[in-house]
Amino acid sequence: MTTTAGSSSEIEAYLAAVRAALSDIPEEERADLLAEVEASLGEAVGAGERPIASLGPPEEFAAELRASAGLGEQTPPVAGRSGLDTLRAAAARLGRHPALQTTVGLARELAPAWWLVRGCLVVAAFAAATGASWSIAHPWLPHLPSARATAFWLVLAIVGSFALGLRTRGRVGAGVLVAMLAIDVVALLAVVPVERHIRDSPSADALGVPSVVYVPQQLPGLRLDGQAVQNVYPYSRTGKLLHDVQLYTEGGVPITLDLGPDPMRRMLAAAGGQPISNAYPIRYYDSTGNGKRVRHPDASPPIAVPQIVTPSLTP
Amino acid sequence: MDTSQLLRGTLDAAVLAVVAERDGYGYDVLRRLRAAGLSEVGDASVYGTLRRLYSGGALTSYVVPSDEGPHRRYYGITERGRLQLDEARASWSGFSRAFSALLSIDSEVTA
User: pLDDT band at residue A287, thresholds of 50, 70 and 90?
Assistant: First the structure.
């Protein structure tokens, strides 16, 4: 027998190791079990009947204790696990969480939407990677090499994305899963350059591209079908050309033409000397004369003015 | 066959039998089992079994102060423990008969 007076510290160390190996057992149960072991071992070893060496490694002792006490399989203490194992356990716990299962279910239902976006993103990623030009009117549409060709590639990519999604909907191998994840990651990364391109693309206006814009007309003068009227020829009921007929709008505003200043225009005046510019037809002086002779006073458009047969309003 | 493997399934009955004979504390039970011929019984197995039988209500326990060392936790058998021991005895004797017969026949055939 090798028992010495110093064996109590040996027992302490042995018990500490056993205690550590049982760290996953509920505290109360472990305390009861260890109290039994402590008392018995203290007596056995102290009496010199059971040297520590005969008890075997403390881990084996703990495993035997655990099995005989009906405490189930040994689960390795958390501290002893590798990081990956801890991660796996955490993932498994998370996977059983009802909120996550609901989320996964929702994600499965929304997956087709992602497949659609993924197809578009793959085409956009290709365009961004190859430096293709982009549509000016639709900044999100690259030219590969034309908008029409892009439409073809888009359809192809979306169909491919859906086919891939449907094929891998069930349980698939890890390799396929990793490949799918890689495609998804690439598609997601493409969001960045595409978004930047769309944000940075100059607007159509800045590039001088004509755009149909309604601008309220505020042009001076009298216009017919958008064209400035140069003169007005009033005729009587009988078709006789009238002279110096003053025209007004329903609001009493003189109807004038936008002709600009012209020294040769025969300007009319009222009694007080005020100019009258809404009298028609407008006539011009003869430039060859002394400025008082009116040129072609009876000139008129080459038209046959009909006679009015509706009874006259004039009494 | 290794005796320790045989012991694994029968240790409950052995511990109950020892305690039924006379109340005992952990190391005492171990010593008596060894003295009875079960020299390969493990220390930890006996302590674990004692705790499990106690938790299951087959054993009762009480602490006896000791002048020399720490207090000793004694175990005594309960009514439930006696029933369990009776059942174990019955099944063991049946098993033992059958197994003995089997092994003796086998030894005769191969001898």
Answer: confident
B33, B18 Cβ separation under 8 angstroms? yes
Interface confidence (ipTM) of the complex:
0.81
Tell me how far apart the alpha carbons of residues A143 and A134 are, in angstroms, rounded to a whole number: 5
Lowest-confidence region among A75-84, A102-111, B9-18: A75-84
Length of chain A in terms of residues written: 315
Measure CB to CB from residue B43 to each of A32, A55, A69 and give the nearest one. A55
A41's tokens: 């071992």
Q: What does the DSSP 8-state code read for residue A204? A: T
Q: What is the average per-residue pLDDT within A253-279?
A: 87
Instruction: Indicate the angle between helix axes A58-68 and A7-21, nearest 10 degrees.
Output: 60
What the block records as the tokens of B44 is 């930890």
Mean pLDDT, all residues of chain A: 78
Beta carbons of A36 and B44 less than 8 Å apart: no
- Confidence class of residue A304 from pLDDT cuts 50, 70 and 90? confident
Instruction: Give the Cα separation of B42 and A302 in Å (integer).
Output: 134
- The tokens for A3 are 């028992």
Which of residues 55 through 94 in chain A touch B, CB cutoff 8 A? 55, 61-62, 64-71
Q: How far is CA A220 from CA A217, A226, A259, A276, B38, in A?
A: 9, 11, 10, 17, 125
Contact between residue A294 and residue A283 where contact means Cβ atoms under 8 Å apart:
yes
- Pick the closest to residue A267 from A301, A292, A249, A232 (CA basis): A292
Q: Test B25 with A39 for CB contact under 8 angstroms.
A: yes
pTM: 0.42
Amino acid found at A169: R
Task: State phi, psi for B100 to the nearest 5 degrees.
Answer: -60, -45
| Range with lowest mean pLDDT among A82-86, A108-112, A251-255, B78-82 | A82-86
Q: Do A119 and A162 meet the contact criterion of CB atoms below 8 Å apart?
A: yes
